[in-house]
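Shapes recur. Our protein:

. . .
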Amino acid sequence: MLKKVVNISKIYTWETSKNSLEVKKNHEILIKNDKIIKISKKIDDFTNDTIDAKQCIVTPGFIDSHTHPIFFGNRSDEFHKRLNGFSYEKIKKTGGGILSSIKKLRRASFEELYLNSLKNIKPFIKYGTTTLEAKSGYGLTLEDEIKSLEVIKKINNELELDILPTFLGAHAVPQELKTSEYVEKICNDMIPEIAEKKLAIFCDVFCEDGYFNIDESRKILNTAKSYGLIPRVHADEFKYFGASELAVEVSAISADHLMVINEDGIRALSNSNTVATLLPGTTFFLNKDKYANGRKLIDGGCSVALATDFNPGTCTIRSMPNIIFLAMQNCGMSLAESFLAVTYNAAKSLNISHMSGLINEGYNADILIWDLEDLKEIPYWYDSADTKIFKVIKNGNEVN
């Protein structure tokens, strides 16, 4: 089935061969089934199925490569505690934080968790996200991690966006186990069964002081690799002790957060295929001053992606235009660099850059049509971006 997008003022994409922003004026896009098969000034292939862009601009759909949307309830009380001087670490010590979400998820039935998570995920689409990475990590038992990943699978089959699942059993240590005991359980029980059931593509670890150290993280990630899962790492968020260097050592596809990365970490990432994924929404939500230094990472030769880090405790932002705005305001990134970070580089961090993240022939027809005249308006209208998206097209089909 053929479909054309016509009357486009400008197509914005990334020219990978030149490593620069590309703008195509007054082109049309021909879609066959779910793929872009032609981009040209005038496409003569006959089809009655046309989408009129009404002289609006076109971009690829956004790719949000780091989210935690599978949870039950909320942690709004912690938001208010932080405003009254409680630190993230103090909240954790008093039974809050990740452990609070774990208690709620364990009590929730599959249906309750599914319905709550569906409400969490649906709004991403209206902000232009067409591909989403989603982590487990609020169960921390084999049964509850499988429950979370099964919820991701069910929602992925029902919503018109692609959801790529990540097993994050190593998100925290459950209160009923010692760290060494839990690491053994992750490696000997969780990873083998989750891999056998094909419930995850990636395996992530919160490699951080007070959570999982370098040796523990290495063991988990190498075990995951042996079962065919692709490593990812929460790295250098609060304290630098070599997590980004570990990410490179285990060939992780992405090292995420990086607020306190140092020169050694930057050098390691720049000489690797590991993408540096920044999460400025978390810094903003936690009201912290230190944002990840995107400028230094890019100038150091790192590939940088941006993501929301949507989760119940430290960031409830779902809008990638908001994240672009924060990256430009606080991470030293330009418009072009931020655009690259939420499209092609985000696709690289999910191992899908051969088919997503560009408006290009042979790529998935994941297209946003914006009621805007120029790309620079996206961060300008950051708080009302959903009203500026004229159409969301996912795999060739209009979804709004």
Q: What stands out?
A: Residues 63-348 form a domain with the TIM Barrel fold (CATH 3.20.20.140). The CA atoms of residues 30 and 45 lie 8 Å apart.
